[in-house]
Design brief:
Blueprint (H helix, E strand, L loop, with lengths): L5 H88 L5 H14 L3 E7 L5 E6 L13 H13 L3 E2 L3 E2 L5 E11 L2 E11 H8 L2 H6 E6 L5 E4 L6 E10 L8 E7 L4 H52 L3 E6 L4 E4 L1 H7 L3 H4 L14 H13 L5 E8 L5 E12 L5 E10 L1 H22 L4 E6 L5 E4 L1 H7 L8 H4 L24 E10 L4 E11 L5 E9 L1 H28 L1 H28 L4 H29 L7 E3 L1 H19 L2 E6 L6 E3 L1 H17 L10 E8 L4 E7 L7 H6 L15 H11 L3 E6 L5 E8 L3
Parallel strand pairs: 22-24
Antiparallel strand pairs: 1-2, 1-6, 3-5, 4-5, 5-6, 7-8, 7-10, 9-10, 11-12, 11-15, 13-14, 14-15, 16-17, 16-20, 18-19, 19-20, 21-23, 24-25, 25-27, 26-27
Amino acid sequence: MERKTGKFGRWWQTLMRRLRQRFVRQKWLWLAPNIAIGVFALSMLAITATLQFREQETALAALEGDMQWAERTIESRMLAHQDFLAALGRDIEARRVDGNAFQWRAAAYLKENADLAAILWVNPEGQILWAASQSTKTDRVNDILPPKRLQVLKEALENGRFAYSGQYANADKHHVIDLFRPVQQDGKNAGALISVHSLENLLNATLPDVFSNKYSLTLVDETGQPVISNANITPTDHRVSGLIRLNLLDSRIGLQVAAYRTEGLWKSYLPAIVIIILTAITAGTLVLLRRNAQRRAESEEQLRNAYAFRQAMSQSLLTTMRAVDMEGRITYVNKAFCNLVGWSEEELIGTKAPFPYWPPEDREKLLGSLKQTLTGDAPLGHSEARIVNRAGEYFDVSVYVSPLIDSDSQQLGWMVAMNDITEQKRIRDELHQAQERFVTVVDGLDSAVHVTDIVSGEILFANRVFNNLCGFDTIGHLSPAIFPALQPPKKSLLRDPGQLKTEDLPCELFDGALLDSTSGRWYRLHDRAIRWVDGRTVRIKISTDITENKSLHEREQQQKKRVEETSRLITMGEMASSLAHELNQPLSAIANYCAGCVKRIESGNFQIEDLLTAMKRAGNQAQRAGKIIHRMRDLAKKNDPYLEAVALADIVDETLALANIEANRLGAEINLNIAENLPRVMADRIMIEQVLLNLAKNGIEAMVQIPEAERHLEISACIADERMIELAVADCGCGMSEQEMENVFAPFYTTKAEGLGIGLAICRSIVEFHKGRLWAERRPQGGTIFKLTLPREP
């Protein structure tokens, strides 16, 4: 669309048209001498250039042939190294090479190839296992490859093929490049062979001296930067030069070849310089004469270009621009403003408030703001407003107002810039609402939550509960100083916070109970390292007051201990009559043996051997009675549990001595089925004896309703899995109903007329303390099987 230019614009266009017409009429005056000078200069330069070009073409042809020969020579040598590594790798994969064989073969190959600095064998972690090197300072056994070489190793192992590293300087300050040959054994990555190639020796050992004396040889990396060169002080002719990119897998190393200059460079340019100087002198006069005529036209052309540039820049801005005069009339709008509001430039230029893009409901407010701007009472800078486009869509905009000053420092009006911030404002409002929701949720927790900087310990965030604990707003304070009780000991931390890396986050640091020595209260602290909103690493600590819960837990443990002791005493009381009957037999036998000995001694008719036999039998009966009393005493006096590795067969034997008392009293028989070579279990001997005795006693009592001949109790043990040993007690009684099976382990539930219902509940607690399991099953032949598992010795 053509703009209205005004009187000045029309005068400017007329002047430029006249100048162009005048220049066209006078152009022929300058054309003939310029053509003559140009033809002469070009002819002489063409002749000189042709001669030099032919000479250069001859040198380039020779260079091309030499470069191809050098390329084939270097690539052949590198491929030979690849073949050696491939053969050595196959022998390693087949396990035909050990450390000595590797050292012998690698050293022999290094001796024949001076361009190789070392041959290495590394494991997948980059540790050098075998090494043959020309130097003792680099690549020694047990060294770990640097990160860059380690990365190439990983890529070679993943791809399963040869890989070249980029060039680098080793410890000897020599430039080298690595060739990696991955090796697999039994389908797994076993490591890689690495040949370290010295770039200095590569040039000297591969190319003959004749080639090196003729050309400057420079090895360059993939970016074209020189790495090493054999060039001496003789300048090189870069016009006769070329670059070889060696075809070495993924390596982009190249060889730049340039011929040495045989004569001064200035001599080759001398004819052209003379021609140019003479031509310049001849044309100088014409140029000076013509400059005066063209100076005005050039100046005006620059003005026109500058005006067009400023106009294009204004129309290309994404920021909307408009100008208003001192009366509030729009005098200028750019393309971005027209696109935003939907009205064209012709429709907007000259309009006054209220403007069509003002929302009807905001017109009074916007009109007041405009009046303040025109009178100079409005503050300069940033403000926000709403506008509506032609389609009725509303936008939030950021408005910047500044005075429009001309070259004479006179104010012509105001420049107004607007940016669409609708989406930014929506995101800002959503973030604010999300922040409010987050703070509300965290403040509603019963736990104290605060976030600290992992280095300084400064509190960055704290919820209401934490601030209430401290009695003030803790933001900005140091956590160790205001609440030292919530600082876990360093030795209790799962990770060192100072050693954490970005990839380690999030990370658990501590989860346990801490005592506040000042208040005497216990807190459950959950300490975790996370990434904060600004990108730094912080520690979020969630602490809960568990003082009441801890006291309740301690009381429960004490009550549980008293119940266990009561259960053991009840068991002893229930077995008192059986124990008295069992002890009566050895005591009666002792009395009989002693009475017999007395009678024989009194009669005088005795032999020493008979008396000795009777006394030994009396001693055996005394030991039997002592063992019974000893086992009952150990079971009754048990205190704190102690886990140790014990043989399950020994526990069964110890328990059987007491269980047989009850079995003999009720006419039952106990059968053992203990698997051979059972691993030992981690258990408290007395506690497991109590469990087994309780289960055996219950099983014996469950069979009183069947004939004595059928009263068989079976105790068996076997391996349950790789972690557990299973122990089972099976009776032949009448079994239990479905309801009894469901409630058999419930506290105070019993099927006995005089039972307390705590025995099996305590048994289950003891087994679960051992990290095992106790359960009951129906026996297919009739009766019940109680099974328990105990952990094996590690």
